[in-house]
Amino acid sequence: MAQRRHLRTAHGSRLAYCHSPGASPGVVFCPGFHSNMRGEKALALEAWCVDAGRQFTRFDYFGHGESEGAIEAGRIGRWSQDTLAVLDEVASGPQLLVGSSMGAWMALLAALARPETAVALVGLASAPDFTRWMRQSILSGDARAGFEQRGYHDMPSHYPGESSYRIEAGFLDEAESHCLLDGPVALDIPVRLLHGQADGDVPWQHSLAIADAITGSDVHVTLIKDGDHRLSRPTDIRALLAAVNAVLDGLQSP
């Protein structure tokens, strides 16, 4: 496992990352909301890349994992900038971006912003624009009055060691400028989307909507009938590694 290092971002905070040098295209893993770079998928990808002699990078956004900051102070735009900082200052050369849940949103934004670097994308339980569902859930339920009065709502958490997490109106408002699915997503790179049909957080139909929005033709959606949101079982990880390997083989073919 690569040693943890830190990158000083334009905001002045320290971003934690691990980087293994190797052949290109490299692989960059973008974790999910309230997740971190030490999850099963990130570590499995790292081991696979290192064994193959391929460059690999994983990192924690501001306020996540081992990076500095309070997660409540984070914003979609800031985490997107963190992703670009890792692409620009840590990774080297062309990269395949792998994003889990919110990480797929970050990967899509990064691919749009760095077309010369992002040569392919693999998404797992992809959740671009998830903040819109959060707002709708809050405003359509019993929490609406409190949210409108206080400007925040404490959401029940499924994350280990965390009973709830705070969602502020400002977080949801800022995210609107980064939402993608109101129009076409102008990408013409290989995209593979894996989604569990037993996902209780992000409906599998969302991956179909993403595929429809992407303008390129090399877009495949794989549905895993009994897969949940995490997609971290050994069978799920094998499916992820197979997708990454197939895309990389395609990139290297004449």
Structure, explained:
- This protein has 254 residues and is of the alpha/beta class.
- The chain folds into two domains: 4-128 and 191-252, Alpha/Beta hydrolase fold, catalytic domain (Rossmann fold); 130-178, no CATH class.
- It has eight helices and ten strands.
- The chain has helices spanning 40-52, 76-89, 102-113, 130-139, 144-150, 169-175, 205-213, 234-252; strands at residues 4-8, 14-20, 23-30, 54-59, 95-100, 118-124, 152-156, 164-168, 191-196, 219-224.
- A hairpin with a 7-residue loop joins strand 7 and strand 8 (164-168).
- Helix 2 (76-89) packs across helix 3 (102-113) and helix 4 crosses helix 6 (169-175).
Instruction: Give the biggest sheet.
Output: 8 strands, mixed
Tell me the fraction of residues in β-strands, as a range: 15-25%
Strand order across the biggest sheet? Answer: 1-2-4-3-5-6-9-10
Radius of gyration: 17 Å
| Top-tier CATH class of the largest domain | Alpha Beta
Number of helices: 8
**Oligomeric state of the chains in view:** single chain
- Count of individual beta strands: 10
Shape: globular
Please tell me the total number of domains. 2
Query: Could you name the ranges where pLDDT drops below 50 across 5 or more consecutive residues?
Result: none
Mean pLDDT: 95
In sequence order, what are the helices and strands, one letter per element?
Answer: EEEHEHEHEHHEEHEHEH
